[in-house]
Structures are given as structure tokens and as C-alpha cells.
Write a structure and sequence with these properties.
alpha+beta; five-stranded mixed beta sheet; 3 helices; 36% strand
Length: 155
């Protein structure tokens, strides 16, 4: 009888003061927790150091890592068990995305490196709306946005 596979996503927050080499070693160890239990990694997305919404173990920043993987339930349980034992993991959460999936239909692994923000890009958490080219409002029939003033009559 074949094992039932599920698809999971884990968001992990590591100590931001580890340094590049130690952080990468921890990422590789975490990936190994999944593969050693017969799981298969689908995506590894390194978000880098970001501010947290609240303090975790006295820290207001953390290194964020998003893992998407598939495997038997033991792979997710073992990942959670081992992450609880690692002192440099500030917080993590694993959720099931889909159950009873076909392992042969999974996409190849995608390993996304740390995306460097482009020059002039908005900082994390401050997404800016895409700008429409001039005259676009007139072409679509939408009203033009009103200009904001500071209330001094434009002087």
C-alpha cells in the first residue's frame, strides 16, 4: 500500500543575527528535515531579514523562510518536532495546502534566492500601487484622481 501524500507550506522565522553562513546552513538543515523523511521540496523562498509584527524572543526582526513541500504526514510532523528543538528558530507554522496528492504530478523544485529589492522600491510592507500612464484615465472613461492639498488654498 502506498503512503498518502499531502502538500504543505511552512513559514519559518530564524534569528536575524546568525550571519549569512549560519543562516544558509540552517536553511539546508531544515530542507533536510523534510527530505530525510521521504518528503519532496517544491519551493524554497528566502525572504531575508524583515521586521516582525511583534517581538519574538526579544527580537523585532527575523529571517523569513518559506518552504513548500509534499510528503507523508511523517515529514510534516518530523519537521515540526525538529524545529521545536532548534534554539535559533524564533517561530514557525506549517499548514496543509492539499491532501491526497499524486507525488508523480508534483512540479520540479524551485529554489528562490534572496530577492534584492530594486532601487527605489518600496520597503517591505509598503506596497505601492502601479501607476497608470498619463491620459489613461481619459482613455478608460474613469474620472481623473483629485489632487490632494494641504488645506492652505494652494499657496
Amino acid at each position: 500500500m502506498a503512503q498518502t501524500w499531502n502538500r504543505y507550506e511552512s513559514l519559518l522565522l530564524f534569528d536575524p543575527d546568525l550571519g549569512t553562513e549560519a543562516t544558509e546552513e540552517l536553511v539546508q538543515r531544515t530542507r533536510g528535515f523534510v527530505t530525510n523523511e521521504g518528503g519532496r521540496l517544491i519551493k524554497t523562498d528566502r525572504w531575508g531579514v524583515r521586521a516582525t509584527a511583534f517581538e519574538l524572543k526579544g527580537r523585532s526582526k527575523a529571517y523569513y523562510l518559506l518552504l513548500e513541500f509534499a510528503g507523508p504526514i511523517q515529514a510534516a510532523r518530523e519537521l515540526d518536532r525538529r524545529l521545536n528543538l532548534v534554539d535559533t528558530v524564533l517561530k514557525f507554522q506549517t499548514i496543509k495546502l492539499a491532501d491526497r496528492i499524486d507525488p508523480d504530478g508534483l512540479p520540479d523544485e524551485e529554489d528562490l534566492g534572496l530577492a534584492e529589492p530594486a532601487a527605489g522600491a518600496a520597503p517591505a510592507g509598503e506596497a505601492s500601487a502601479p501607476e497608470a500612464p498619463e491620459g489613461a484615465a481619459a482613455e478608460t472613461g474613469a474620472p481623473a484622481p483629485e489632487e490632494k492639498t494641504d488645506g492652505d488654498g494652494g499657496a
